[in-house]
Write a structure and sequence with these properties.
Two copies of one chain form a homodimer. With about 300 residues, the first copy, chain A, is α/β, with parallel strands linked by helices. Chain A folds into two domains: about 1-75, Arc Repressor Mutant, subunit A, CATH 1.10.10.10; about 80-305, 3-Layer(aba) Sandwich (D-Maltodextrin-Binding Protein, domain 2). Helices cover about 35% and strands about 20% of the residues of chain A. Chain A contains ten helices and twelve strands. In chain A, the strands form two sheets. In chain A, strands 3, 4, 5, 6, 7, 8, 9, 10, 11 and 12 form a ten-stranded mixed sheet that branches. Chain A has a two-stranded antiparallel sheet with strand order 1-2. In chain A, helix 8 links the parallel strand 7 and strand 8 (about 210). In chain A, helix 2 (about 10-15) packs across helix 3 (about 20-35) and helix 5 (about 90-100) packs across helix 10 (about 275-285). Chain A is globular. The model of chain A has no long low-confidence stretch (mean pLDDT about 85). Chains A and B meet through helix 4 and helix 5 of A and helix 4 and helix 5 of B. The structure holds a DNA duplex (30 and 30 nucleotides).
Chain lengths: ~300, ~300
DNA sequence: CCCGTCCACAACTGTTGGTTGTGGTTCTTC
DNA sequence: GAAGAACCACAACCAACAGTTGTGGACGGG
């Protein structure tokens, strides 16, 4: 990278604080390991070869990833560690906005796999992560020792169907409309708070929600929905779903009442990380509560609050 | 990574084909460099510390990136190098579909910055890249020595406006409707084939397309549009734009005629890379020509063809 | 043709990543 | 409570490597 930017081995060496010969040896060794020539040497400096051009962006990325890896554990001011269920749901969008507003604050977004809110809270208590976006099922039992939570984002549900589904043409549907329809939400891990949420949702409106089968990924779900006239799924307005342009899936709002998934931010009151305070401020600023629309949330959902 | 998966230093050592002591030294050195403890050693194996948990995913990513870097230049069967203008336009979606269909074929998607179709063709001729998605302005002059092109994707234009724009409520607009409106497309590099395309489009329908200013990124464009009642932009149906959920931008189809951007695939006839043949096959299979709708493309656009 | 510029090779050295041998700690077992 | 097993760390050693300085070959310009 230094050579391509400086054009000369000796300039690159100066920038790196080593000798020209050391640069020569480094590159010769790299080329030997890769088995291809990266630079064509002339008496007027060095030029990237075809393979060098292909390799360079990967080299840059490698250094970026390394820097992030080090930043994630840097003693003193390490990156802010946030847990989200996955990178498509509403809280992930919140985090993207936060990152846009504060690009200087290093984020380390992680996903504690197959875990429920209790595990996340334990991780916050131990300091393994700084914050988590979760639905809190039993606040009074779980929040102790300075672990705090605030309900920050209600994501209204949408019905996801293929073009041939019976409800595909509807502008909106009510929960009652869904009774008797096959609603398939794969990948729900039993025992987690989201499993509890969908259980409560199904019970409240008499729905049948199929949770069978392992999660083969969103792509597989979209595949199934696109072809089926009987199968539908539930997603959230804030959930970022992407599908091939020829798929023609429909996202139909659910209304009267609108079931909302109650995402909370959970953090530790005594955590001194400056990024955490910034995140809470930013979320507070972005919050807009729609108390006008009729919504439904589980009984155990926390009351709305500012983080 | 090996230790966390095997739980014991000695098991990890066996897997790596080195001695237990070497593993011990490696990890001790890594911890010294990072300045934090990654593993807590007990007499019943090793457990990740808090920092170790944070570091592990970065370590995995580092190895993945390294593997991709090596694969990009691996002699014999290196990754397939494709040039696209950016990762949001239609051809990039084509590539995502291709990757979904052929996950085994390693892709190296690159962007030759600020370059026009001639540079891309030269890169293909030299072997720097295997294929490029470009609009070909003067086929008869540019395509020689086995360099071949086929028009593979016509992306219909859409008007992009904020909610307060005069045309925001329209179901569709015609090019004539756009006369006199401010249409802003930042980031067009003069002298490129896309600059030529927008010049021709503006001339054909008497539009005024503002190309001023450097490109501050899509985010900035979306910001400007969201707030403005006079400014609009043009995008493509296949272009993948993402904006914050509270933005409420509108994408309005342009009809009668529909201007389409004529993306071609360019490649070298004699390039033996097996992935290239697969890509051409896949694109051929995905192609669906809509000859029914009235469309407009520049005079110089190639005739439609199968790659 | 000479000279300057640029990169590579040679010889040398300190550091590193591996080896084997051994010892300390911790849990289990009798 | 002592013996044993399992596990990880330290010590000594060695080969390989990444750096150093010194030097030489290739190329292009005046």
């Amino acid at each position: 990278m230094a050579v391509t930017e400086e054009r000369y081995f000796s300039e690159a060496a100066a920038r790196l604080g080593i000798s020209q010969q050391a640069v020569s040896k480094r590159i010769a060794m790299l080329e030997k390991d890769l088995g291809v020539a990266l630079l064509s040497r002339t008496s007027r400096g060095a030029q990237l070869t075809v393979d060098g051009q292909a390799f360079l962006p990967h080299a840059r990325k490698l250094l970026r990833v390394e820097a992030r890896a080090v930043a994630a554990v840097r003693p003193g001011r390490r990156a802010l560690r946030i847990d989200v269920l996955n990178h498509r749901i509403g809280p992930a969008a919140l985090l993207r906005n936060f990152h846009r507003a504060h690009p200087d604050i290093e984020l380390d977004v992680v996903t504690l796999i197959d875990t429920d809110v209790d595990t996340a809270i334990a991780a916050i208590r131990s300091g393994a992560i700084d914050a988590s976006f979760r639905a809190v099922t039993a606040p009074e039992q779980q929040l102790r020792d300075g672990v705090t939570a605030a309900r920050v984002l209600d994501d209204p549900h949408e019905l996801l169907t293929g073009p041939t589904h019976q409800l595909a043409a509807a502008r909106a549907v009510t929960p009652a409309d869904l009774v008797g329809h096959r609603i398939w939400i794969p990948g729900i891990v039993p025992g987690t708070e989201w499993a509890a949420y969908y259980d409560d949702l199904a019970a409240a409106f008499g729905l049948t929600i199929e949770r069978v089968g392992p999660n083969f990924g969103t792509d597989h779900l979209l595949d199934m929905l696109a072809d089926s006239s009987t199968l539908a799924s539930l997603t959230g307005e804030q959930v970022r779903l992407l599908w091939p342009a020829d798929y023609d899936l429909r996202r139909i709002p659910v209304r009267e009442p609108t079931p909302v998934y109650p995402h909370s931010l959970i953090w530790h009151r005594d955590n001194p990380h400056p990024g955490l305070a910034a995140l809470r401020n930013c979320i507070r600023a972005m919050q807009r509560h729609h108390h006008d629309a009729k919504t439904w949330a589980p009984k155990w959902a926390m009351p709305h609050a500012s983080p």
